[in-house]
Design brief:
- There is one protein chain.
- The two termini are 21 Å apart.
- Helix 5 packs antiparallel against helix 15 and helix 7 packs across helix 10.
- By secondary structure, the protein is mainly alpha-helical.
- The radius of gyration is 23 Å and the shape is globular.
Length: 545
Amino acid sequence: MATATTQTPKREAFGSRNVFILSAIGSAVGLGNIWRFPYVAYEGGGGAFLIPYLCALLTAGIPLLFFDYAIGHRFRGSAPLAFRRMHRRAEPLGWWQVLICVVIAVYYAVIIAWAAMYTWFSAQLTWGPGNENDFFFIDFLRSADVAEVGISTDFVPQVGLPLVAVWLIVIVIMALGVKRGIGRANMILMPLLTVMFAILVVQSLFLPGAMDGLNAFFTPNWEALGDPAVWASAYGHIFFSLSVAFGIMVTYSSYLKRKTDLTGSGLVVAFANSGFEILAGIGVFAALGFMAQAQGTEVAGVASSGIGLAFIAFPTIVSQAAGGSIIGVLFFGALVFAGVTSLISILEVIVAALQDKLGWARIRTTLTVSIPLAIVSMALFSTTTALSVLDTADAFVNAFGIMAVALVAVIVVAWLLHKLPALVDHLDRRSSFRVGRVWMLLVGALAPLVLGYLLVTELISKISEPYGGYPGWFLAVFGWGMVIALVVIALLLSALPWSGRSHAKDDPEYDEFLTEEDYEPDAETSSIPLIATSEPHATEKGAGA
């Protein structure tokens, strides 16, 4: 009779707490830190925005980060397995998060490909002075209107070829595993990203007009604090910025050693992420100040966010500034590195879930996940209608995917399963400071209220008028249809049986957690580690734990 040890391979783990912290920061620090936060802060009152931002970080962002850490570390599994070990009927929450990552992965990769090409373009100023807008939309993307052409199949080689390269790189990293792949990639890329962005910020500060940009960014508009939309914007940004509710931090924390300081690690990750955002704001607005002076206008006239900031405003700055090519290479190179570290964390959610469910080897699972995603990514985002599909999918998966699953997960765990006391006990046993009842109040009461408000606001906005002016059929497929499909498929995946080779079988390390904490699982939870087997010895062990 095989033992649990011979049946189930030892779960992968990060080499050290520092590697985990760098990997978690690498996941959190993504494209949004660089191209979204500066504009959100500027529009939200400049320097005054730091007040709602810090409130959101301390009362929602960090508590929900601890929430994910506690679930992943306590139940030692990918998102579906961790939620199932908590309670059998909670498994769909994990698959919902996995499917959100599937959607994000297929479009996130193409933005990295754009940034990679613009790193090369910056060295040669390929777009030409004054032609930045037309170059991006017409020459580079060859964008077409979906209302006129439908879903295009016209291949855009300057997008498709670097997109293939991006997928090949991340597939290699993922195939190497948690320690040799993800851990080492972050140990290399995160220091490089930090150095590159620090140099970019310093160079931007010496541009003419930089102080005008910084004044626009930091000058407080105290009246903005009375606007509920500003506070909602701060909370909304924090939820997305820290990678909570993606399943990422649940998965990453499951790779930690048993006695890791969870809350201490979480604080380092949260404040490092915020520090990078503020650094990005300084660099971006110093450069925008130069751009405004060069064009003889106010900073408000050139301030933008997202794709407009990255691929139109910054190329304009590169064209006009002395040493602009260096600024461009640093900026777009930083986008590539930030994007890769985030993309591998997104893919790890999917790979880990299938490994746990099917018990497959790492390389087999990586290829099974990545190749189909790469094909879909190529089919949708290396064509002339890629930008419209990306814009719609991103808007809907953020509003009705991430926020919705976060709201449901908090309600289920806190109010239906009453698991917050067990999670707070787990955090307090392994942390540099105790979170106690304050954390339970923030997660169980404040978070649902804020998430509910944000979700209702988004729902009203999307229903009141067609998003982006896109055709109804297009929104039905890539907007509303997609978010409904995520929930339906999550339920179907939860109904599938777990493989006999599944990692959900006896896990000696998980059993040690149960014994050490004297945790009493409920009747349904007690059989979760054994869902793939009915051996008598295993059942006795699960019940006794």
